[in-house]
Amino acid sequence: MPEEPIDKPNDETANSDSSTAMPKDEAETTSSENTLDTITKPETSIPATPEQEASFVEAEPPSGGVSLEASTDSTTNNTASNDTATTSQPTVADQMSIRPAKSKKKWFVIGGVIAGLLLLGGGSVAAYSWYQNPNKVLLDGVLNAVSADTAVIDGTMSYASKDVDIAMKFDTNADDNQAGMSLDLSIKPKTEDFFVDSLNLKADAVLVKDDAVYFKIGNLQPLADAYVDAMVQYQVGFYEGFGQTLGPSDIASMKQEMSKSIDPIVAKVDNQWMKVTYEELDNLSSADKGTQKCTEGVLEKASTNSSMRSELVKLYQDNRFISIEKELGVKNGSYGYVLEFDEAKAKSFAKEVSDTEFAKEMKKCDSDYAFDASDIPSSSAADTSTSRIEVWVSQWSHKMTSIKAQADMNDASEGTFDMDIATDFDAKPSVEVPKDARSFKEVQAEIERLLGGGSATPQVSI
Question: Model pTM greater than 0.85?
Answer without folding.
Answer: no
